[in-house]
Amino acid sequence: MTDYRRIAAEGTPTGWFETLYAEAGAGRAEVPWDVPEASAHLRAYPLPPGEGRRALIVGCGNGRDAEHVAAAGYATTAFDISPTAIELARSRHPGSPVGYVVADLLDPPPAWRHGFDLVLESNNVQALPERIRARAIATVGTFVAPGGTLLVLAAAAVARSGDGPPWPLHRAEIDAFAVDGLRAVSVEHVATPETTFPGRWRAVFTRSGHDVRKSA
C-alpha cells in the first residue's frame, strides 16, 4: 500500500491529491482523511441554521463536511481539485443537494468572489507546502460575502516540521486569513490529547455587514 506522503513528495504541490484519490480508487493507497463522519471539530461548532444561505466547502474530499453543512440548511457548493474526489463525493451521496464541482483553490472561478455567507476551510491549507501556502490562505477569505463567516479548522504547530503533509499551522498563519476586509471574531487553540499534534485551531472570521452567526 503506497503511503500518501510518498505520493505527495513525488507529485506537484496540488496535483498529488488527484494521484492519491486515483491510487486509492485502485486499491493501492489509502486517503487518511476518508472517514465516514464530518470533522469532529466541525460537528462541535455551533453552526447556525442556514435558512438557504450560500456555503462553500474548500477541498471537500469525500463530501462528509459538505453534507453536514447542507443538513444545517445551507445551499452548499463543495469543491476539490481532484476530479476523482468529486466523483467519489457524488457517488457517496446520491441525491445530495450539494453542488460538487472540480475547482482549484489557487485559481478559483471569479464568480465566487464575495459570494458565500459561510466558507469552511477544514484541514486543507495544512496539506500545502509553505511556498504556496500564503497564496492559498489569502484566497480563502475572498470567498466570504459581506456579513459572511469564515470558519478555519487546522492542526496547530509549535515549530515547523519538515515531515509532512500535513504541516500544522502557526498562529501567524491563522491570523493571515484576516485579509481582504475580514476580521477575526475568535481564535481558539483546542487541546487534542488523542492525536500527535499539540492542539488544533478553530478560528472564526467575518466581513463587515450582518454576521451569519447572529442570525440564528
Question: What's the layout of helices and strands?
Answer:
Blueprint: H1 4-10, H2 16-25, H3 40-43, E1 54-58, H4 64-71, E2 75-80, H5 83-92, E3 99-102, E4 116-122, H6 130-140, E5 144-155, H7 171-175, E6 182-190, E7 200-207
Parallel strand pairs: 1-2, 1-4, 2-3, 4-5
Antiparallel strand pairs: 5-7, 6-7
Helix pairs in contact: 1-2
Outline the biggest β-sheet. 7 strands, mixed
Number of strands: 7
CATH class division = Alpha Beta
Computed CA radius of gyration, to the nearest angstrom:
16 Å
The computed structural class is: alpha/beta
CATH superfamily: Vaccinia Virus protein VP39
Report, as a whole number of angstroms, the end-to-end distance: 46 Å
Pfam family, one: Methyltransf_25
GO molecular function: methyltransferase activity
Organism: Actinoplanes aureus
GO biological process, one term: methylation
Description of the structure:
The chain is of the alpha/beta class and 216 residues long. It has one domain (36-215): Rossmann fold (3-Layer(aba) Sandwich). It has 7 helices and 7 strands; from the N terminus they run αααβαβαββαβαββ. The chain has helices at residues 4-10, 16-25, 40-43, 64-71, 83-92, 130-140, 171-175; strands spanning 54-58, 75-80, 99-102, 116-122, 144-155, 182-190, 200-207. A 7-stranded mixed β-sheet has the order 3-2-1-4-5-7-6. The longest helix is centred in the middle third of the chain and has 11 residues, at 130-140.
